[in-house]
Amino acid sequence: GVVFPYSPRLGRYNLNFHEAQRACLDQDSVIASFDQLYDAWRSGLDWCNAGWLSDGSVQYPITKPREPCGGKNTVPGVRNYGFWDKDKSRYDVFCFTSNFNGRFYYLIHPTKLTYDEAVQACLKDGAQIAKVGQIFAAWKLLGYDRCDAGWLADGSVRYPISRPRKRCSPNEAAVRFVGFPDKKHKLYGVYCFRAYN
Predict the structure, then answer these.
(1) What's the CATH number where 29 sits?
(2) Which three-class secondary structure string do you get for 159-186?
(3) Domain closes at, from 77, 96, 115
(4) pTM
(5) Is 109 strand, coil or helix?
(6) Which superkingdom is the protein from (predicted)?
(7) Is residue 16 helix, strand or coil?
(8) For residues 123 and 146, is the Cβ–Cβ distance under 8 A?
(9) 121 and 77 fall within a common domain
(10) pLDDT digits over 15-44, tens only?
């Protein structure tokens, strides 16, 4: 499976524990366990924002120590903020997905689309607009690679690169995050997902 950090449109550190659980479920995944995050860190996950884990702790994985992330002179590892109030404390979340039961694809379309047009274009193609968990699963488990930014169900725009190259994530294989653009005016492609019955 694959672990991915998630924060909502509102920006970082906006989820209490229960909202974090819900956010992962909404993206076709579950909140990650410490063991899953640890394995992801050992595989190179480096993320400087703290996120909830399934045991109610708040942690983040650092492979390249640097000043804003615990200090330059610290050892790489999973940094632990400890346990926080599940109702009042707000962080990001680490989600986990290993579930891939369908076809993930970039929809070839004659024009770029607003968010609503993107949703409709996938439906018209017999699919649904893809979720964040689905783009990470396709990227990690299938090596999906596409240098086209596309809408996803949560209103974010991302693209998966498994073969780094000049204009497409030159330094690392990653799911690149463009942001949460204006849904009515910003035009992008779209990633769709068709579940196998």
Answers:
(1) 3.10.100.10
(2) EEECCCECCECCCCCEEEEEECCCCCCC
(3) 96
(4) 0.92
(5) coil
(6) Eukaryota
(7) coil
(8) no
(9) no
(10) 999 999 999 999 999 999 999 999 999 999
